[in-house]
Specification:
The structure is a homodimer. Chain A is an all-alpha fold. The first copy, chain A, is built from ten helices and no strands. In chain A, α5 packs antiparallel against α10. Chain A binds a DNA duplex through α3. Chains A, B: Keywords: DNA-binding, Transcription, Transcription regulation.
Chain lengths: ~210, ~210
DNA sequence: AGGGCAAACTTGACACTGTAAAGATAACAC
DNA sequence: GTGTTATCTTTACAGTGTCAAGTTTGCCCT
């Protein structure tokens, strides 16, 4: 009918997986020149196709942006997951490693982070909803964070509170520390500041007064 | 020579303070249709001038964006200041009121917040640097926050740590709770969640034995 | 095998955008 | 009054997204 559900089994006709090529070209453009460099025509040129070809794989520019955001989100999740696996395996160490992965991804791929969290609702609606196996079990960034927060959720409380506490702190710092933004300083200085800021999480969950109201 | 430093005393030639009119037109467009609706030509049309007129008052679109960001920052600061003045005057109450003003501004003017914190370095360079009396004493948002954080800075530590802890938390939550984004729910639900998340600040600075409830 | 058929692209066009150069106009200095 | 300068207009051009029509290519079915 509408979508090519054959994306992974059969091979397309002319180009051979042009959809993925366009997404990758868009990511390249994004990393090179930031948001204003992302252009349907430039993506098409980079993939070696005509300027109107992307319109058949995505629902216009918004659809391409949504697809890029999905792929960026996938890489973002992977970045946090690997950061968690190589660090301190204790619950608190794992949580901090994930947050560090959050910051690291923002420092190294600012445009992709901007893409992930800057996509507007209307752009999301333009996404082709046929992304099977995308939000799989452990690969979702929010689920990774949620599981890392679980040990610090006081019994009987809404786990989303702790999750959003951690998420807001990491997200806010990462955005403020984006290159050329409000928190100045080199990478090492930013890292040290990040650790000191994240020390606030030592007071999260079952801490000082375990049996509070 | 270059700029009309007569912005407040004499009146310009044709239009009469077109610079301010263009900035206001841009803000209106931004609030109505979001970032993609902000256009030099639409601003010019809304101000009743030719489509190329803005180029003489701003350094291209980037300059207009920077000017709008400055004005938005001014209103943002005012929003936090008034929120601080009408709330609990205790140090902790004042700090939380400011954070609530942060969130409230983001909920009511999401495009302006995006403008303030989304302006790129190159766009900032395009700003006309002749904004006298702009970063005045108490009107700077960061100074407001800094002064509100001062009572919670442990002696001998860098005050920026507490400031960035508070700033990151408020900034992160506000962005995640932007309408149609990652934190769902109505305004009242968001407010309640915000209070619970911001409870993390009870552990900032001189902790565990607070004099206030 | 061969005819149809749909999907994957191409081509051409249009409206809209930012930007630059050159011309008109009005306020001001003298 | 005369000249000058800043303000704004006009005109033009390259680049953008999007639509409508055409062209090619692989696949399916009889």
């Amino acid at each position: 009918m509408n979508t090519q559900s054959t994306a992974h089994s059969k091979k397309p006709h002319h180009h051979g997986d042009l959809r993925r090529a366009l997404v990758q070209a868009g990511i390249d453009l994004l990393e090179e020149g930031g948001l204003p460099a992302l252009t349907l025509r430039k993506c098409a040129a980079k993939a070696g196709v005509s300027h109107a070809a992307p319109a058949h794989h995505f629902n216009g520019l918004d659809g391409l942006k949504a697809a890029i955001a999905q792929e960026a989100f996938r890489r973002f999740s992977a970045s946090m997951l690997t950061a968690a696996e190589v660090g301190d395996p204790s619950p608190r160490g794992r949580l901090k490693s994930i947050c560090r992965g959050y910051l690291h991804f923002g420092q190294t791929h600012p445009a992709l982070l901007q893409m992930i969290f800057g996509v507007t609702p209307e752009e999301m609606e333009a996404a082709d909803t046929d992304t099977p196996g995308d939000h799989e079990k452990g690969t979702n960034a929010y689920q990774i964070l949620s599981e890392a927060c679980a040990p610090f959720v006081p019994a009987g409380t809404d786990p989303r509170i702790v999750e959003i506490q951690v998420w807001s702190l990491a997200h806010g710092f990462t955005l403020l520390a984006l290159p050329g933004r409000f928190i100045e300083g080199g990478v090492d200085h930013t890292d040290a500041l990040f650790d000191q800021v994240m020390a606030l999480l030592n007071h999260v969950g079952p801490t000082v007064s375990p049996a509070s109201p």
